[in-house]
Design a protein that fits this description.
The chain has 283 residues and is an alpha/beta fold. Strands 1, 2, 3, 4, 5, 6 and 15 form a seven-stranded mixed sheet that branches. A six-stranded mixed sheet has the order 9-10-11-12-13-14, with helices on one face. Helix 1 packs parallel to helix 3 and helix 4 packs parallel to helix 5.
Length: 283
């Protein structure tokens, strides 16, 4: 925040759509290289994709899992400090006390670990003839919300399947978030059907920016990601979007525009709290 508690009105966000391989050291090196590239292009907040250091799949989670702090998060801390950016570390398989989590670690411009978010809603679906996947075979869900403050705005975190749960976004909006970032790896069935729709829904319902950072598409992988990392404005506009290949997506987040939309359509003061409520059961 600026002196007097005023936030800066705009900043550049970068989403890194990383081509993930089976070699962890290569993934880390490529990710850090693209963070440096994003910083050179003026990004102040940078996000990596879900499962950026390993292939996505229940058979890979135990093999690639790490403690936090650990190898991957140490590299993220170092590059965040080197580039003086807020770095949302996508997600990695985290091991803690014999359990595995799908976890996002966020680092400040001084390299400090600001917050750790564990995916709340595990991806357990069965669409006959299309896709069956059960994260719960190996992963444990998290049990807490995660936000962090920047000089620009407060940011709320979710991971992939969390995007489908409107209540999470509503709680983050109640807590003052103006940007929600979801490292995510939708697939070739749910991606074309729901990827943009869900982001636009969360953005318009809560009058905030929504960003998703996906891995690049690898047609040879056991799980093929949709790609199309995206930024959606509080008006529901898709203001930036990648294709399927490895790239960095940039968007200038305009908090003045956000404030104008909230003033013009003041839904927060018009909610009927006498009739309904979405409330957090935990801090």
């Amino acid at each position: 925040m600026l002196p007097g508690g005023r936030a800066m009105a705009a900043f550049r966000l970068a989403l890194i759509q990383l081509q993930v391989s089976s070699i962890k050291s290569e993934n880390l090196a490529r990710a850090c290289g693209l963070v440096r590239e994003a910083a050179r292009q003026g990004a102040k907040v940078v996000s990596l994709p879900e499962c950026f250091n390993s292939p996505y799949g229940t058979k890979y989670f135990p093999e690639y899992a790490e403690k936090i702090p650990g190898e991957s998060t140490q590299k993220l801390s170092e590059v965040a400090k080197e580039c003086s950016v807020y770095l949302i570390g996508g997600s990695i398989p985290e091991e803690d006390a014999g359990k595995l989590y799908n976890t996002c670690a966020v680092f400040g411009p001084d390299g400090t670990l600001l917050v750790k978010y564990r995916k709340l809603h595990l991806f357990d679906i069965d669409i006959p003839g299309k896709i069956t996947f059960h994260e719960s075979k190996t992963l444990t869900p998290g049990d807490s919300f995660s936000t962090f403050d920047t000089p620009y705005c407060r940011v709320g975190l979710g991971i992939c399947y969390d995007l489908r749960f409107a209540e999470l976004a509503q709680i983050y909006a109640q807590r003052g978030c103006q940007l929600l970032v979801y490292p995510a790896a939708f697939n070739m069935t749910t991606g074309p059907a729901h990827w943009e729709l869900l982001q636009q829904g969360r953005a318009v319902d809560n009058q905030l920016y929504v960003a998703t950072a996906s891995p690049a598409r690898d047609e040879q992988a056991s799980y093929v990601a949709w790609g199309h990392s995206t930024v959606v404005s509080p008006w529901g506009e898709v203001v930036a979007k990648a294709g399927a290949e490895e790239t960095v997506v940039y968007s200038d987040i305009d908090l003045k525009k956000l404030a104008e939309i909230r003033q013009q359509i003041p839904i927060f003061s018009q909610k009927r709290s006498d009739l309904y409520a979405v409330e957090a059961k935990k801090p």
